[in-house]
Amino acid sequence: MMITPCNLKMVKVVAGSINDLIGHLTPTSEYYPTDEYLFAFLLSCRQFVDPVDVLKQVVERCQIEQSNPDLPEQATVAPHLLLFILQWTETFPNDFNKPALMEKLHEARRFCERLDPSCSRGCNRLIQMLDNRLADVKLRKKIPKADSWEDVNFVRDIKPDLVAAQVTHIELDFLNNISCDELVSMLKKDVVKGDYCKNVEKYVNWFNHLSHFVASEVLAPELGGARHLTMEYYMDVAVHCFSFGNFNSAMAILAGLNQSSITRLHKLRDKLDKGRVEHLCTLENQMSPSENFKTYRSAIKRSQEQHTCVIPFFTLLVKDIHTTCEIKKPRSRYRVD
Predict the structure, then answer these.
(1) CB 89 within 8 A of CB 108
(2) In this predicted model, what pLDDT tens digit does every residue of 202-228 receive, in sequence order?
(3) Distance between CA 57 and CA 50 in Å, rounded?
(4) Which residues, listed in sequence order, are joined to residue 16 by a DSSP beta bridge?
(5) Contacts (Cβ under 8 Å, ≥6 apart) of 235
(6) Residue 16: in which H helix or E strand, if any?
């Protein structure tokens, strides 16, 4: 089938060469890519091409399109190009932290204003909105000081289900700050994680802090013979996290309870309530890494049918994304599905 502006949107793009994919992305006076393709390409392209090069080629193609002598006199690519950049800045504002990409954005803005002076107001508004988004992104990337956990004081008179619910809210807040482009970008070998993936770093630190905090609470010297009560308390919190669909916190608490500094205390284990121990063993079996986390994957599938919101074990999620990207690793054709 011959591809024309009339039927181009009917084409489902799965893979192709860089040149063809960018050609399908580039707007013209008559054509604009679908939202689905625009999102898929801009998300996946960072695995095999720099976003700066993408915008550069799109602008160059638009300039060639506009200089076509066969183009109707009133036809202009400016509105579609401006809309394309607007969607990009709304979906992946992180990309425009790069000075080189901002330079290309201003080049595209000047090109649009030359073609259609009426676009000037829209261009200025776009830049202002982008500045606001970048300021918000910068605020979210601020990492709290490590000593902020010193003020945390969980006490056993708070019901375990309430603690589990609060921990779940904290998890959701961390996840809300992680953008999909940050997840994909962190898989690149040459990415500077401390610079671009700070929200992921914060989330990983939260997991480690929660794990060490639970272990520290159980081993607190002032507890003396009451350590088994504290351990039972956090066993209940882990079970409630699991029942809420918060698998990440459940795994963090399990990791804390299974630290060598606790497991070596055999007398402590002997004091634990048998019923709670059975629940903990069941939970450990559900989160077992055997057979590539087979039981966990079944559990999270069931949880997705019961809960509107499920928080996966983040480390395994990143591993699965990396594995998927490796399977789809491009050779001559690049996948954007």
Answers:
(1) no
(2) 899 999 999 999 998 888 866 566 788
(3) 11
(4) 334
(5) 257, 272, 276, 277, 279, 280
(6) strand 15-16
d(CA 17, CA 315): 32
Distance CA 35, CA 236 (A): 45
Distance CA 255, CA 315 (A): 13
pLDDT tens readout for residues 273-292:
888 888 888 888 988 888 88
Q: Are strands 334-335 and 15-16 parallel, antiparallel or unpaired?
A: antiparallel
CA atoms within 13 A on the CB side of 84: 29
pTM of the model: 0.71
Helix (H) / strand (E) containing 334: strand 334-335
Token pair, residue 36, equals: 């689905």
The pLDDT tens digits for 298-322 are: 988 888 888 778 999 999 988 888 7
- Give the 3-state secondary structure of residue 196: helix
Q: Read out DSSP for 228-253?
A: HHHHHHHHHHHHHHHHTTBHHHHHHH
Q: What is the rounded distance in angstroms from the CA atom of residue 297 to the CA atom of residue 287?
A: 9
State the amino acid at position 249 in one-letter form. S
Tell me if residue 18 falls in helix, strand or coil: helix
3-state secondary structure of 49: coil
Contact 65, 31 (CB under 8 A): no
